[in-house]
Each structure stands twice: as structure tokens, then as C-alpha cells.
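Hi everyone, sorry if this is the wrong subforum. Our group has a chain we'd like a structural model of before ordering constructs, and none of us has done structure prediction before. Sequence below.
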Amino acid sequence: MFRIIILVVSIVTFSSTFSQEVTLSGSVTSENSPAPFVNIYLKNTELGTSSNENGWYELKNIPPGKYTLIASTIGYIPFSQSIVVKKEQEQFINIDLKPSIESLDEMVVTGTMKPVSRLESPVPVEVYKPSFFKKNPTASIFEALQNVNGVRPQINCSVCNTGDIHINGLEGPYTLVLIDGMPIVSGLGTVYGLSGIPNSLIEQIEIVKGPASTLYGSEAVGGLINIITKNNLTAPIFSGDSFITDWGEYNLDVGTKVNVSKKISLLLGINYFKYDNPIDNNGDNFTDLTLQDRISIFQKWNFTRKKSRILSLAGRFFYEDRWGGELQWTPEFRGGDEIYGESIYTRRWEVLGKYQLPFEEQLMLSFSYNDHSQNSVYGDVSYLADQRIGFTQLTWDKSLGKHSVLAGSALRYNYYDDNTPATLDLNGNNPDEVIIPSIFLQDEIAFNKKHSLLLGARYDYDNRHGSIFTPRGAYRFKFTDTDILRLNAGTGFRVVNLFTEEHAALTGSREVIITEELKPERSFNVNLNYLKKIYGDNGTFVTLDASMFYTNFQNIIIPDYDTNPNQIIYDNLDGKSVSKGVSANVDIVFPSSFKIMFGATLQDVSNTEKGITKRQILTESYSANWGLSYTIRPWDLTFDYTGNLYGPMRLPTLGDLDPRRDFSPTWSIQNIQFTYNGIKDFELYAGVKNLLNWTPNNSNPFIIARANDPFDKEVTFDANGNAVATANNPNALTFDPTYVYGPNQGIRSFLGLRYTLN
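Answer:
Right subforum, don't worry. Here is the predicted structure as C-alpha cells:
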């Protein structure tokens, strides 16, 4: 009888509870059209569904109470509304979604130097938002690019840890870096310019792979990276991001917006990074990671004008003190030959601005100027350098029927001086100073919605090398709304300054040999790109972005480490240099909030001279990048797993007796992160970097050759200046810290906090 009573009570209770549960339904639209396959759920519950193909949704069996209704899908701003569910009362809530700037159809400017939809651009442009880089937080843009397919930050020195960016296997000097479309980072700044840009002020980063010299001139041969800062009107009132690691690294990013008056607004960003904890895990008595103390201050002023004409002015100041070397080194040993250290003081400031002229025609005047000063020592070798670059450009943007015309004129001023043979002649010191005028013309012809053609050409005059002509063309075929094919072809040129780009020439004991007057490099590139979007019936969204690329170089200048192990020989290659390969990115977004990003590149970069073909040094034959993300909605917790993988690279060894590997193994850096955003305006994140604890030392007897004798005091040389084998130097080595292909920093944990006030 007791069991029967319990059963009856349970049935009554269940029926009563069930009868109180209600249904929430409604339509989901965007711009007056149904929005299918949108994720609909109640925050902090397991209740969720997706809108059907007509944009209708239903959430059933909701207990009475207070909830937050969430609607989200890729390409739209998430919808959020507080609701109260009452018993036995059906709820109808219609949802209108607004397109997001993070849509795949966002606006880009880098490919054509004018705002255009990414899908409509004839030039393929990859776009990366701050949310992408938050999956693996770093202290600099240089490190942040490690998870971009086909882009690799290359460490060039084991001691000072300076590096550059490789795109599709091409060396760092072939990549031009822009800030808001202005060529800020070049020459001497190539090595240090990607540090200290406040992450809090970055709106997006646009990457073009392949030559862009027609629009941007020299250095844009392998590709370009355009760092676009936030708009003063849409930037948050305040943002802060700070993290620490168990290695002792500390990074702080702060950004704020100030309305100075009704017509003037200010964006202010500050980045501060400090690391002062010498660590030597590989036991060579040298720091595994360079100690650094740097600060960067960025300001961007925006002025409101009639007819919404543009007027903005920005400036940045950067200072860094970094050193690496023997653990016993202190500043009193700077420049001496007792304790080895590489100490680099860098001071840099820059201004850039845009002014739209007060005419009916679209005339834009842009300008930039930067001053870069470096005071550095590499052991007992000093390197003192100053660089000043001024740039101004006037562009005219005009639509004429099916033609979208961009015409422009630019003037670039370069000044460079140092204490090396690069700026010496028979009369003594002779700084390199040149003014390069340019004109360019670009016409994009829209034949119809499916076909468009872009033609462009640029003329530069360099009094050292004469006239330089760089044409390009691009064709876009949009055979469906979700299938786009692009074919790009163009030329590029580059004038080389060795010592500003090759810091291996300064570190270690190798002698720099320049065999002839170096000619400017020229290149021809072809790129075929295919973009595919797939909308699944269940709300799954897939993007495929694949490319084939081919670049042929003439007069390429490459450092020769092989002919003489004690020298770095520079000359124009008497032969051919080719970079070719395929690359693909796949992004998958599931309704469950699970996201997959995967990219892979296969490439062959080689140099042929006198019938002998060699793989380019420090260039991988294949690479991969990935990111897995999943959000546990009831817990407001997001899990991210990111990583990269690189195939073998040919490495610069010191001859046949050098015991270090001639080729690197396949290696990978992998990271995990957990992010909690259950507190309004805050994000708490923590994780582990380099989970596998991989370092280059793992498969080598040592990384730095003769670390015990960095000044080669105990090395015996023959009459030709070559090291000879002795009892205390059986491998005939000299001090060499240039054998590096990846970071020496092993596994480490991190903890960080973000705050955003909109």
C-alpha cells in the first residue's frame, strides 16, 4: 500500500510540474529575411534548439522562472534578452539579428587599397580578428602570428631572440608590414617593429600572400601584413588585458577612448612587457629567453568634419631594453670580451595620418614618418644604427560605370646610417639616403556580378637603380554565391640593406663577405585561389580557402653559409630561385559551439646555381596549424586547443665536423587554454603553452657552438682563417649562435584577466 501511495504522489507531482512547463517560440530574421539554423538557448541551462529553414524556433518544457535568451550564429552579433517564463503561459519572442563585422563578408582594404567586401575583392585577403589571437594570448604580434597558416615567425638568433616573419617560405625582408595602410615597419624596423603594438587597439589584421609592389612598392614581394587599429567611434570606452607566466613574463595591454570634445576623440593604448628571470634549462650557461623590458604608447586622434570626411592622426613611441647571453652578464660587461652578452637598446617613434581633401572627388592624402635608433652590442662588436623613413601618398578613387579606378602618387624618403661597411666608402662614412617618387594606376572592371578584372601598374624611380615598373592583374569568377575563384599575377622588386635585415651578420664570429655590387631583386608571382562556403541543414557552417602559388626570383640575394663555415657570403644568385606550393584553410562551426580551424601548406623553396639545386635554408617543406574551440554554455567556460607543426628545415652548420643536425626534425608547439566569462565585462583565462616541452635542443648535442668560449680565445685558426681541430676543439668550431629554427622556451603555464567596458 505504501508503494502505491508513493507512486500516486509521484505521478500527481510530475503531472503538476509538467503542466507548469511552457513553450517559447518565435521567428528569427535578419534584414527582413528569415535566418535559418541559428543557435537558440537559455543561458546557464541545457535547454536549446536551432531555427529551421524558415527561421522558426521552439523551446519546449521550460520550467517557470527568469532566464536569458541567447541567439547566435556566425556572421551576426549575438542576441541577448532577459525573459520571465510564467506557468501555463505560452511565450512568443521574435529575434532580429544584426550582421557582425566578423562575418566572412567583412570589409577589407589591403588587397586593393580601398574598402571592399572580402567576397567581392579580386585579391584574396585573409582576415584575423582579436578573437582569433585570444585563443593563444601572446605579448607581441610577432608571436601571435604563429598560428596563421603559411605564416611563420622565425627566430634568427639564439641569444638575442630577434626574428622576422616568413610567408609561404620567403624570408622576413620580403614581407611588408603596414599599420592602417602605412608602411611603418620596414628596413631596420623589420626585426623589432612587430613588438609593442598594443593588442587592445587592434581591430583586425589583414594578410595578403604574394607580391603587392604595384600598390605598396618595394618590400611587398612575398606578401604584406596590415595591422588595422580600432575606429574611434566603435572602440570600447576602456579595455585591459594582463597575463603572467610561471617563467616570470608579465604583459599588460590597456586601451581607452576619450571624447575630448564634440568633434575630437582620442584612442590611447599602452603595452608594457617585462621579463627579467634568466633561465638556462639546456645547460649551456646562456639564457634560453632574452630578457626584455619594453613599453609602447599609441595614440590615435579622430576629428569629425563636414560630410563625414576623414581626418585622423596617430603616433607611437616604443622603447625596449633587451639582453641575452651568459648568465653572469651584467651591464658593466657591455661591449667587453670577458662575459658574452648581446644588449640591444631600441628607441622608435612614428606618426601617421590621413586627410580627405575637401572636394567632391574622393581624394585622400596619407602620410607617415618614423625614426628608429638602435644602440646594440654583440659581445665586443657594436652596432649603432639610425633609420628615418618618410612617406606621403595622394590617391584618387573614382567609380566610372563598370570601372572602379584608383590612381595615386607617392613619395618615399629613406635615410640609413650605421657603423658597418654598409655605409662606408673611400671617403669615410656615407649614409644611405634616397628619395623614391612613384605613380600607380589601378582599374577594377566589374563585367557583371560573376566576373571582374583588376589591372594595375606602378612606376618607381630609384636613382641608384633607375626606373622600376611593376604591373599586376587579378581576375575574379564568382560562379555561385558560395563559390569564388581568383587568379592573381604580378611582379615585385626589392632593394636590399644587408645589415638591417640580416642580424646573423652581427652575431657570432662569421665574417661578412659582399662579393659584388648587389642588384635589386625582381620577382614574378602567380596565385590561384578558391573560396567555398557551405551552409549545412543543421546549422553547421564550413569555409574552405585553398591556394596554389608560384614565385620566380631574379637576382635574388641570399646568404651563403655553406661555402666557408667562417663566412656569410652575399651576392646575387647566378641562377634561379623558385617558391611554389599549395595551401588550404578549413573552418567548421557547429551549432553546439564546437569550432575547428585547420590549415596546411606544402611548399618547395629552392635555389639553383651552376646546375645544383638546394633547398633554401631555414625553410620547412610542410606545415600545419590548428585550433579547436568548445564552449560549455551552462558554465560560461570555453576550451581552446591550438598548435602548429613544421616539417624538416635545412640548418646552417659549421662544416662536416659539426655534430649538430643538418636538418631539423619535424616539430610542434601546442597550447591549451580555458576562458571563463561568467562575470559581466570580465574574462578570466589560464592555460599551458608548449605542452610537449619541445625545444631545438631536444635532438641536438647543443644549439650554440662553443658556448664555453664565445670570444674564440681558445680556437686555433689556419693561414686562411679557418678553425682547425684541436684537443679542446675536436670539431673545429667557432662560436655560433645562429643555429636556431624555433623558440628555446619550453613548457610554461599562464594566467590572465581581461576587462572591457563598452
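For your construct planning: The first strand starts at residue 22 and ends at 30. The first helix runs from residue 2 to 20.
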